């Protein structure tokens, strides 16, 4: 194979990679760690979809703040959270996990994104029910191959966690449409109430409307089902 052909192949590979990268749909989830509706959406809608065929077409951002508030006095930051002080701690754990989770070279089947998603899903699945009154961070870390739980816990219990949660609050405050419901799901950095409401009950179908061709097979299945339903209604 000539050097020119090799160069052309490399260029083609780069272009293909760029197309796939550009095709990812930016999705931002604004949620609260102890919010039942947030838990329902993440565990029943988001997680099953993104762990399947759609994992390669989404670019997820998690913002664990919701309707919380923060106040600064000097270098101190205090929080008031929608579901009480335990949620403030939970939000910090989420923020610290998002910041600190890393993939390992010896666990090539896991990426930073997949590890973060698995960990958040585990925490949200636990909800408010902690049988031993112990926050399930360590358990979820162990179950989901997170090997730096101690770093996450230290972060959540120090000023670093407060600063990260404040950043989540600032990001929430910068929304063009003030947050009125939790969770709120933004596609392509835009909030539309009808889209948000639809995503809560049919995330796959909603996401597929934003995925460019060629779409994953599951999108074709959802499109066909939607068309059949529309035809039956008529």
TrEMBL record:
InterPro entries: Interferon-induced_GILT. GO terms for molecular function: oxidoreductase activity, acting on a sulfur group of donors, disulfide as acceptor. The keyword Signal applies. Belongs to the GILT family. Residues 1-21 form the signal peptide. Pfam families: GILT (PF03227). PANTHER family: GAMMA-INTERFERON INDUCIBLE LYSOSOMAL THIOL REDUCTASE GILT, GILT-LIKE PROTEIN 1. Keywords: Glycoprotein, Signal. This is GILT-like protein 1. The lineage of its organism: Eukaryota, Metazoa, Ecdysozoa, Arthropoda, Hexapoda.
């Amino acid at each position: 194979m000539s050097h020119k052909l090799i160069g052309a192949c490399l260029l083609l590979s780069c272009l293909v990679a760029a197309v796939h990268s550009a095709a990812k749909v930016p999705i931002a989830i604004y949620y609260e760690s102890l919010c039942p509706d947030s838990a329902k959406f993440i565990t029943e809608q988001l997680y099953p979809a993104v762990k399947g065929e759609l994992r390669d077409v989404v670019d997820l951002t998690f913002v664990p703040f919701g309707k919380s508030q923060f106040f600064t006095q000097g270098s101190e930051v205090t929080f008031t959270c929608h579901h009480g002080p335990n949620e403030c701690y939970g939000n910090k754990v989420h923020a610290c996990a998002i910041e600190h989770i890393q993939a390992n070279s010896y666990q090539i089947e896991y990426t930073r994104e997949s590890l973060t998603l698995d960990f958040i899903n585990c925490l949200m699945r636990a909800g408010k029910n902690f049988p031993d009154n112990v926050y399930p961070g360590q358990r979820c870390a162990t179950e989901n191959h997170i090997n730096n739980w101690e770093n996450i816990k230290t972060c959540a219990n120090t000023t670093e966690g407060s600063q990260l949660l404040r950043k989540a609050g600032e990001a929430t405050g910068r929304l063009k449409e003030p947050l009125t419901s939790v969770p709120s799901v933004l596609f392509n950095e835009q909030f539309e109430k009808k889209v948000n409401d639809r995503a809560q009950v049919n995330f796959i179908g909603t996401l597929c409307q934003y995925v460019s061709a060629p779409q994953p097979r599951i999108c074709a299945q959802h499109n066909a089902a939607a068309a059949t339903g529309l035809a039956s209604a008529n």
